[in-house]
């Protein structure tokens, strides 16, 4: 049962690339007017009722299942997977820096472009967003800036529901509040100066003690960072598939028509939309339950890359937060409260095995050198 459940999860993770492709972008970023759709329910029902469409969707699912079963039987890349997991684990000290880039650069872009987290919501708070973004990039007052950003996002979401398109910001801000700025950062440098009572700065710094106490208070929440990132990405994907496509298929159809996507993959425009929507919902569910998390994050990066190169006038900066947080999830894995944790994180086990092998090899070389 354990192996079967994990295989099903991997099938869902692989399925996101079957139909999503470039049609999975934030469609309202690149089109102004939707195509005419008389009824949402009839649109979806009619699309799925076409035998050819059902055959394509079913065939893609069967192909994904067959690929997974073949891999599980042969398992040709075990050592490579173990080395990859070990490499990701070694990058954990760079996680705060990656998070700062993932959130800071899009905030700077939002400020210069004049929008409020998402290009769909115009804003005159240019200096505010530019300032917050650069503070995160410099790593100055990182936890405070992230908390301010989270409050601004929550307020905006209450006023303009379209901000749900960028829900990944919630996970990014929460993660930064928990992990802080890391290094290299201005916080790290100033913290070292302030920790020395004999330094001039250490005698006049007004916030070091408060920062230390806050860091100690939030330290127990650090293991939940992968959960915050994973769930925020999951909400974003489900929203993109359900709300932006299935419930508003006119915009997605307009994207398919604008970029002539049926020439890329010769299927009906309706199948493009429904396939992309189902794929995004599937990856959101897989991320939410935390099953095959690193694989799903890696496939998500591929999906984002297709969007980046497939839609030349799509606002790239609006997607960088997704790139960064998916990359962060490849480093952290699913974390607690996930099926990966329940069934045992094979990647973590593999990483531990590789690390142990490397340590043993190092000890052997040290012993040989001593003997020589």
UniProtKB/TrEMBL annotation:
Protein's recorded name: DoxX family membrane protein
UniProt membrane topology term: Multi-pass membrane protein
Protein origin, superkingdom: Archaea
Protein species of origin: Halorubellus litoreus
GO annotation, cellular component aspect: plasma membrane
InterPro entries in the record: DoxX, DoxX-like_oxidoreductase
Transmembrane found in the keyword field: yes
Record has Endoplasmic reticulum as a keyword: no
Annotated compartments: Cell membrane
Keyword set, alphabetical order: Cell membrane, Membrane, Transmembrane, Transmembrane helix
Segments crossing the lipid bilayer: 49-71, 97-117, 129-155, 223-242, 271-292
Primary location: membrane
Source taxonomy: Archaea, Methanobacteriati, Methanobacteriota, Stenosarchaea group, Halobacteria
């Amino acid at each position: 049962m354990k192996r079967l459940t994990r295989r099903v999860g991997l099938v869902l993770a692989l399925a996101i690339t079957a139909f999503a492709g470039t049609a999975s972008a934030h469609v309202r970023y690149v089109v102004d007017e939707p195509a005419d759709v008389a009824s949402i329910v009839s649109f979806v029902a009619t699309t799925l009722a076409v035998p050819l469409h059902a055959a394509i969707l079913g065939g893609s699912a069967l192909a994904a299942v067959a690929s997974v079963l073949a891999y599980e039987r042969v398992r040709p890349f075990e050592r490579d997977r173990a080395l990859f997991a070990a490499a990701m684990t070694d990058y954990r000290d760079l996680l705060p820096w990656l998070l700062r880039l993932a959130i800071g650069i899009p905030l700077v872009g939002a400020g210069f472009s004049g929008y409020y987290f998402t290009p769909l919501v115009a804003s005159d708070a240019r200096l505010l967003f530019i300032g917050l973004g650069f503070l995160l990039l410099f790593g100055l007052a990182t936890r405070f800036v992230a908390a301010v950003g989270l409050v601004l996002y929550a307020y905006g979401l209450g006023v303009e529901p379209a901000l749900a398109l960028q829900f990944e910001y919630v996970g990014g801000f929460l993660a930064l509040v928990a992990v802080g700025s890391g290094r290299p950062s201005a916080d790290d440098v100033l913290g070292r100066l302030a920790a020395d009572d004999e330094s001039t700065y250490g005698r006049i710094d007004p916030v070091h003690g408060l920062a230390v106490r806050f860091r100690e208070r939030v330290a127990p929440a650090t293991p939940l960072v992968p959960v915050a990132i994973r769930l925020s990405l999951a909400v974003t994907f489900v929203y993109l598939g359900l709300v932006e496509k299935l419930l508003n298929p006119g915009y997605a159809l307009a994207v398919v028509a604008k970029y002539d996507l049926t020439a890329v993959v010769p299927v009906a425009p309706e199948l493009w939309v429904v396939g992309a929507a189902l794929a995004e919902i599937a990856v959101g569910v897989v991320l939410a339950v935390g099953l095959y998390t690193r694989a799903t994050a890696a496939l998500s990066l591929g999906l984002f890359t297709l969007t980046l190169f497939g839609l030349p006038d799509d606002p790239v900066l609006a997607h960088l937060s997704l790139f960064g947080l998916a990359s962060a999830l490849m480093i952290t894995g699913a974390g607690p409260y996930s099926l990966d944790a329940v069934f045992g994180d094979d990647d973590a086990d593999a990483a531990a095995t590789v690390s142990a092998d490397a340590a043993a090899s190092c000890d052997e070389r040290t012993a040989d050198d001593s003997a020589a």
